[in-house]
């Protein structure tokens, strides 16, 4: 019981966060906690112990078991949804609980307990409290649920449209282009859809408020488990958890920055994919390097599929990890490591299958060395290079022409600092252990993707986000080796962490005026890098005076802990942000109250499979001509209905046209111009024949007309039934 008390802290923080939000009552929160515990965590933990074993403690079992349980739930979701039996999905996890209650009751307890120290529990509980506090008091408060927000981060509404779709059909369709197959990494959204099916909560509440919270805690648990098993030292798991949680503190100060750290509400696919990647890595290490049972394949393959279906960055890292370990084994033993080679081949097949089926959104990508530098706001002003992401040759144009090399070096140093968590683990280079080379393979692949891939939306950043847990495990491992060699405890690491957090807080408090010029931005960037250098030199001095050593693994961790909390401030400083806005306020993504209210009415008064024709394919309202930003997900997202045509920006067809005509893929004309023309004609010059064609060819039942985007013909009131009007929105029923 005493070991459980620290976990009250994150529970109280989350409860306080929800109380401050005031938009979700205790009922839905309790219902979701019961769902996650009874349908995900407990069944998964029982399956984990039956197929493999217990880790010896409940916390790590529940972390790994939650991933196993989610994988089992996704299998059931696919089967039940394909059969049209979504309402009965609760039967699937119940079968596991009943089966173990009848024939496997021994798995409800740990046969050979090996509890972790209370300090481990306290460290993980504090990290979880930071994560949940940043999510609820920070990110969620910054993103009110419809209809109470004036603007919505566009990816959230896009994810919302997929959650709605995944409660309807397997395989799913593109919600914005009815009849087209959804080619996207949608497994995280399927997990949300399963939660909606079982709990009967709305997709809005599940996505905007509830889904991410348990996965934030699970991410800490599985990353801590990976760090512990490779280092064989419990406190490395605490360091990994603290390093993951520390940057989240900044979300309490400025939520507009740091929107996509390794785990995030705004990128559920990254969060879900990273958790699956780390869990698969734990099982691979056990199988390949610790003579684990062959039954682990029953966990490895399906969880790897979940990872690949959640984020395209997952399988390349796992393949590289196994491949580099195989190469190391071949060189050192001069024998072909067939087990490792076979495992790499299996992962390659899994990667190919997921890439060709559900891991879309890679269209428009190409190879360009250091293309990620173009994502920094100061890059264009400093270099004059206006090449768009996803365009250009194999090398960054500014580098080819030899322009402002000093500035590029500064920007590269800035990127390295921002991604400190993903390079610190390279301290394990030279370890004569294949597990070290396994971690290195993942880190090398992460950085190779980060520095070589040029994605239209700068999504190459997800490579290093996914590699971060492997780096943390490597850094912690090297630190444990140094600590054992010195014969000293590790209070310096804790002191460094406290120092860096406090110092970051001082910088945030006194950061001053916005960066109004390129020179000012470069100075702020340089100043932040000097801060990092100063902290590093200070820690090096403390290291030498305390342990009489010039370097070592602990030093790597000290640098990691000192840079992680201030990386978000570096990002804020170069952007010139000065204060946190109360809610997301981007003018481009403004949704008027009548638009949101009408969309909610439509969702409540139409069937889940109804199709809607709408003129809301672009944002902001009033801009529907070619060249507008085609990320309008008002009807497909808030109403949750399939549309004849809505925001097409994230389709592979649009992304493949990145750079055409000098425009980003988000501003390309519709790949389905006939649907756009048909919608415009139905709203502005309707005839009975046009409306019949909509019904007969596409199954359109409703028209959602936003008068801000175009005038609506009065003839529609004679040709269709107006069911709802509010503000500038008209909703018409075309009939069966």
Topology of helices and strands:
Layout: H1 8-21, H2 26-51, H3 58-82, H4 91-103, H5 118-142, H6 154-166, H7 187-199, H8 203-210, H9 212-231, H10 234-245, H11 268-289, H12 297-310, H13 314-333, H14 338-357, E1 366-367, H15 378-383, H16 397-400, H17 405-418, H18 434-452, E2 453-454, H19 461-486, H20 491-509, H21 518-547, H22 553-575, H23 593-605, E3 611-614, H24 634-639, E4 642-643, H25 652-655, H26 673-684, H27 688-698, E5 700-706, H28 716-719, E6 721-726, E7 729-733
Parallel strand pairs: 3-4, 3-5
Antiparallel strand pairs: 1-2, 5-7, 6-7
Helix pairs in contact: 1-5, 2-3, 2-4, 3-7, 3-9, 5-9, 5-10, 6-7, 6-8, 9-10, 9-11, 9-19, 10-19, 10-22, 11-12, 11-13, 11-19, 12-14, 13-14, 13-18, 17-21, 18-19, 19-22, 20-22, 21-22
Structure in a nutshell:
This protein is mainly alpha-helical and 736 residues long. 59% of the residues lie in helices and 4% in strands. The strands form two sheets. A five-stranded mixed beta sheet has the order 4-3-5-7-6. A two-stranded antiparallel sheet has the order 1-2.
Record keyword descriptors for this entry:
736 residues, mainly alpha, two-stranded antiparallel ribbon
Word description of this protein:
By secondary structure, this protein is mostly helical. Helices cover 59% and strands 4% of the residues. It is built from 28 helices and 7 strands. The strands form 2 sheets. It has a 5-stranded mixed sheet. The longest helix has 30 residues. The protein is globular and about 85 Å long.
């Amino acid at each position: 019981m005493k070991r459980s008390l620290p976990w009250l802290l994150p529970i109280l923080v989350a409860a306080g966060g929800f109380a401050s939000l005031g938009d979700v009552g205790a009922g839905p929160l309790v219902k979701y906690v019961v769902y996650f515990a009874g349908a995900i965590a407990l069944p998964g933990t029982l399956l984990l112990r039956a197929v493999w074993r217990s880790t010896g403690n409940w916390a790590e079992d529940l972390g790994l078991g939650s991933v196993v349980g989610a994988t089992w739930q996704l299998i059931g979701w696919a089967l039940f949804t394909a059969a049209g039996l979504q309402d009965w999905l609760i039967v699937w996890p119940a079968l596991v609980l009943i089966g173990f209650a009848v024939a496997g009751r021994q798995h409800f307890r740990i046969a050979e307990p090996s509890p972790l120290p209370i300090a481990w529990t306290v460290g993980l509980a504090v990290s979880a409290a930071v994560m949940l506090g940043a999510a609820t008091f920070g990110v969620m408060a910054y993103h009110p649920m419809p209809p109470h927000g004036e603007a919505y981060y566009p990816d959230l509404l896009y994810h919302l449209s997929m959650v709605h779709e995944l409660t309807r059909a397997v395989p799913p369709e593109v919600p914005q282009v009815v009849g087209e197959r959804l080619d996207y990494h949608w497994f995280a959204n399927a997990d949300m859809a399963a939660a909606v099916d079982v709990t009967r909560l709305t997709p809005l509440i599940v996505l905007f408020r509830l889904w991410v919270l348990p996965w934030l805690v699970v991410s800490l648990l599985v990353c801590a488990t990976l760090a512990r098993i490779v280092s064989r030292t419990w406190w490395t798991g605490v360091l990994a958890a603290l390093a993951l949680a520390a940057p989240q503190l900044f979300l309490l100060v400025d939520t507009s920055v740091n929107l996509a750290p390794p785990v995030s509400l705004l990128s559920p696919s990254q969060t879900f994919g990273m958790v699956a990647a780390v869990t698969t890595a734990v099982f691979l290490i056990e199988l390949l390097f610790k003579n684990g049972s062959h039954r682990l394949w029953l966990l490895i393959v399906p969880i790897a599929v979940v990872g690949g279906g959640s984020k395209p960055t997952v399988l390349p890292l796992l393949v590289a990890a196994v491949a580099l370990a195989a190469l190391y084994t071949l060189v050192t033993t001069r024998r072909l490591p067939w087990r490792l080679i076979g495992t790499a081949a299996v992962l390659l097949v899994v990667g190919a299958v997921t890439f060709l089926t559900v891991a879309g959104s890679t269209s428009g990508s190409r190879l360009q060395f250091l293309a990620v530098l173009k994502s920094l706001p100061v890059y264009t002003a400093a270099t004059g290079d206006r090449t768009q992401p996803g365009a250009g040759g194999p090398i960054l144009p500014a580098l080819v022409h030899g322009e402002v090399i000093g500035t590029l070096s500064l920007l590269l140093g800035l990127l390295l600092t921002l991604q400190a968590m993903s390079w610190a683990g390279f301290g394990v280079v030279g370890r004569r252990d294949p597990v070290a080379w396994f971690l290195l393979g993942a880190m090398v692949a992460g950085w190779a993707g980060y520095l070589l891939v040029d994605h239209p939306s700068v999504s190459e950043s997800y490579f290093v986000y996914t590699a971060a847990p492997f780096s943390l495990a490597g850094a912690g491992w090297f630190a444990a080796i140094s600590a054992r060699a010195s014969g000293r405890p590790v209070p310096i690491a804790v002191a460094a962490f406290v120092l860096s957090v406090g110092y970051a807080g001082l910088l945030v408090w006194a950061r001053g005026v916005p960066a109004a010029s390129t020179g000012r931005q470069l100075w702020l960037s340089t100043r932040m890098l000097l801060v990092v250098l100063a902290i590093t030199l200070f820690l090096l001095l403390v290291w030498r005076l305390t342990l009489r050593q010039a370097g070592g693994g602990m030093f790597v961790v000290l640098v990691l802990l000192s840079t992680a909390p201030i990386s978000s401030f570096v990002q804020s400083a170069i952007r010139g942000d000065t204060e946190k806005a109360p809610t997301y306020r981007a003018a481009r993504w403004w949704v008027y109250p009548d638009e949101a209210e009408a969309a909610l009415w439509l969702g409540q008064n139409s069937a889940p499979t109804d199709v809607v024709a709408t003129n809301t394919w672009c944002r902001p309202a009033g801009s529907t001509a070619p060249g507008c930003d085609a990320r309008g997900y008002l009807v497909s997202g808030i109403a949750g209905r399939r549309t004849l045509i809505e925001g097409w920006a994230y389709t592979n067809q649009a992304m493949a046209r990145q750079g055409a005509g000098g425009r980003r893929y988000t501003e390309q004309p519709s790949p389905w111009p006939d649907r756009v023309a048909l919608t415009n004609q139905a709203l502005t010059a309707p005839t009975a024949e046009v409306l019949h064609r909509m019904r007969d060819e596409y199954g359109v039942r409703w028209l959602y007309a936003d008068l801000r985007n175009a005038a609506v013909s009065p003839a529609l009131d004679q040709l269709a039934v107006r069911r709802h009007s509010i503000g500038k929105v008209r909703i018409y029923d075309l009939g069966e």
